[in-house]
Amino acid sequence: MLRIPVHTASRDYEVWLQAGLLRDAGRRLQPLLGVGRPLFVVSSARVCRKWGGVLLPSLNRAGFRAQLVLMPDGERAKRLATLEALAEKLIRRRADRDAVVVAFGGGVVGDTAGLLASLYMRGVELVQIPTTVLAQVDSCIGGKTGVNLVAGKNLLGTFHQPKVVLIDPEVLASLSDRQYRAGMYEALKCGVIGDARLFRMFEQKRAEILRRDPAVVNRIIAHSVRLKSATVSADERESGVRQMLNFGHTLGHAFEAQSGYRMLHGEAVARGMVGATRIAELIGLCDAVTARRIRDAVVGMGTLPPVKFDSHAILRRLRSDKKARGGQVRFVLPRKIGEVHIVAGVPSTVVIAALEAGFD
Ligand SMILES: NC(=O)c1ccc[n+]([C@@H]2O[C@H](COP(=O)([O-])OP(=O)(O)OC[C@H]3O[C@@H](n4cnc5c(N)ncnc54)[C@H](O)[C@@H]3O)[C@@H](O)[C@H]2O)c1
Ligand SMILES: [Zn+2]
Q1: CATH number listed for the domain at residues 2-174
Q2: Domain spans of the chain?
Q3: Ligand 1 atom 36: the closest Cα is on which residue?
């Protein structure tokens, strides 16, 4: 089993990665959490139907008292109302401060259950068991929790680091192709911002990635987790290097919102990476060959759902992004594969030109 450390001011923990880890979860967690510990597995019906029958027996075999606590599926469930309903369920089941919340699902479950763990009785232990590519390579590490408001995504949230993160790539088998690819764009992002070897896998092992070759998928997850863990370890609260992880996200968030959230997050980030790369090329930060490589890697993962955007509407959204400081939009832009820079003050004309250049 691969163990990747994460160091933060609030705590140090590990990410465990192994195919088949779900079957072994109980035995692995026992020394860390203690025998008989009450575990509340927060999950959605979709994930549970597929994998609950593997995880829960494994936990109970190891002597835990594991109970399932279901929440609705999908981004629309990531609301304070869901959190309140979950907390009421925990109370009814007599969960006390000794309880452990196990977030078992994609990023939606991870963010919501994470916030639940950070607020329930002023904070209980959290274990993350991510089940989508996006959650495995990105959202399960770093301790960001949150729910959405009408005004936007993740506007209510906390930092609450897990006790441990368990990643079993085998659970990805039941993921739809669209969700699988959407998550892979986040892994590709990790390659561009800080891991040229990871990036080259997307150039050289594209067919293997698309057919979900277990060895290749495992390596991609391992590389991405290492990058995310190292970044979070250097900067828990996103004041510096953690911002690099936002490559493709400044534009991506605007696309996502503009599509009324019909576009998946990863798909929006894919387009955002293409747009940011064009901006980098236009301002002379990135050479044409590197820019072409990044675009080819994104486009090579398959066609993205078609969209027609009004560039000026995107520009307005960029200015109201919560990460825009004093109205200044900050882009994370590539200089070469494995190196990005944070750039403020990109002229609107350049952003418009990049958007109008298209996405392939
Ligand atoms: N906390 C962070 O640092 C962070 C980082 C990035 C994204 N996020 C958040 O993550 C969320 C997106 O996460 P996501 O892309 O995982 O979406 P998701 O959690 O909605 O999962 C996508 C779909 O896949 C299903 N699913 C999950 N695992 C499955 C499996 N193994 N087999 C079959 N179906 C499965 C889910 O039920 C859901 O229908 C967003 O809300 C985003 O804001 C958080
Ligand atoms: Zn993202």
Answers
A1: 3.40.50.1970
A2: 2-174, 178-356
A3: 106
Contact 301, 206 (CB under 8 A): yes
Mean pLDDT of the chain: 94
pTM of the model: 0.95
The predicted structure's pLDDT at residue 236: 67
pLDDT of residue 325: 62
Mutational pocket test of ligand 1: of 41, 128, 139, 238, the residue with most ligand atoms within 8 Å of the beta carbon: 139
Distance CA 294, CA 279 (A): 13
pLDDT exceeds cutoff 70 at 322 = no
Per-residue pLDDT at 32 exceeds 70: yes
Q: Where are the alpha helices (DSSP H) in the chain?
A: 25-33, 45-47, 53-61, 80-92, 107-119, 133-134, 177-194, 196-204, 206-210, 214-234, 249-258, 265-282, 288-299, 311-320, 348-356
pLDDT of residue 22: 98
Is any atom of ligand 1 closer than 6 Å to the C-beta of 143?
no
Whole-number Å distance, alpha carbon 305 to ligand 2 midpoint, is 18
d(CA 310, CA 317): 11
Q: For residue 358, what pLDDT band results from cuts at 50, 70 and 90?
A: confident
User: Stretch 184-194: mean pLDDT, rounded?
Assistant: 97
Burial of 278 (0-12, 13-18, 19+ CB in 10 A): buried
Q: Hey, what CATH class is 178-356 in?
A: mainly alpha
For the CA of 46, the closest atom of ligand 1 is 37
Closest CA to 107 of 77, 85, 83: 77
User: Which of 181, 242, 293, 330 does the annotation list as catalytic?
Assistant: 242
211 carries an active-site annotation: no
For the chain, how long is the longest CA-to-CA vector?
62
* Terminal-to-terminal C-alpha distance of the chain: 39
pLDDT at 74 over 70: yes
For residue 211, give every residue at least 6 positions away whose Cβ sits within 8 Å of its Cβ, in sequence order, or none.
none
Please, are residues 156 and 149 in contact by the beta-carbon 8 Å criterion? yes
